Amino acid sequence: MVQWTDFERATIQDIFSKMDYETVGPAALSRCLVVYPWTQRYFGNFGNLYNAAAIMGNPLVAKHGQTILYSLERGVKNMDNLKDTYAELSVLHSEKLRVDPDNFKLLTDCLTIVVASRMGKAFTGEVQAALQKFLAVVVSALGRQYH
């Protein structure tokens, strides 16, 4: 089981409590789809993903970006039980959707960049370390069906 410090817990809760899901989620997923275009193969039913402008203006990308953040919020509320929290989602992504688990890491890297850009100077090394630890544990929980 992952051990969380009081600082890490408070930092993760603070980041997510102040996050604008309607802008951060779409920005993170859009960035992932633009920077890592091979990830688009999982979103074939999302319509036009032919260029950055199309991706950033795609309402299905925006909606799924928000969905991702609401899913992460579930993890924030269950930090001591992330494997069980994401068990069903892990099965869905591994067995039904066949998502390569490395893509979760790419998405969380993009999310980190977007969060950093929004937080500015408040995004210190310590804050980044707490966020990336949380996201790494979530990625591990989501990818556990693959091992």
UniProtKB/TrEMBL annotation:
InterPro entries: Globin (IPR000971), Globin-like_sf (IPR009050), Globin/Proto (IPR012292), Hemoglobin_b (IPR002337), Hemoglobin_oxygen_transport (IPR050056). Keywords: Heme, Iron, Metal-binding, Oxygen transport, Transport. GO terms for cellular component: blood microparticle; haptoglobin-hemoglobin complex; hemoglobin complex. It comes from the Eukaryota. Residues 3-147 form the Globin domain. SUPFAM superfamilies: Globin-like (SSF46458). One of its GO terms (biological process) is hydrogen peroxide catabolic process. The keyword Heme applies. GO terms for molecular function: haptoglobin binding; heme binding; metal ion binding; organic acid binding; oxygen binding; oxygen carrier activity; peroxidase activity. It holds the Pfam family Globin. PANTHER family: HEMOGLOBIN FAMILY MEMBER, HEMOGLOBIN SUBUNIT EPSILON. Belongs to the globin family. This is Globin domain-containing protein. The gene is LOC117734742.
